[in-house]
């Protein structure tokens, strides 16, 4: 029976940051479940970098069904957690059910992959204090305020926590996360 991995997300998550790890982990034989505030079809976005813009642009992206609501998740059934970015983490960090899930993974020192704005969730539960992380570069002050040692690198591994800046870093992010999974899960 394959190990189960939980991916937590919501509307306005970055399409590539949800679908790439979902498909890559399934390709490796893991059973991946998508959890969101409610069971529904989620609407993702596409963030891209365009000449002349000071920041990324946002366009409508793909849709994907949530397998579970956060209230239905039993963290003990999962070997690891994936936290995509996009705008979803901005509001998801306020969800008390999700904060319980995140805390359970960190308390058990299970593998966690986070990318882009995903570390806003782990910061919300105090999970970054004293840890080395990366995130979307504009989040450097947020990561430092959360007590993390921010590093502007394509991937940072700190124990079982694997973080990356954004979707251009996917190959390094999943390569390192899979190495942690193979060793720990």
From TrEMBL:
Q: What taxonomic lineage is listed for the species of origin? A: Bacteria, Bacillati, Actinomycetota, Actinomycetes, Kitasatosporales
- Which Pfam family would be a valid example here? DJ-1_PfpI
Organism name: Streptomyces milbemycinicus
Identification of the protein by name: DJ-1/PfpI family protein
Family listed: Belongs to the peptidase C56 family.
Q: Which CDD domains match?
A: GATase1_PfpI_1
Residues in DJ-1/PfpI domain copies: 4-178
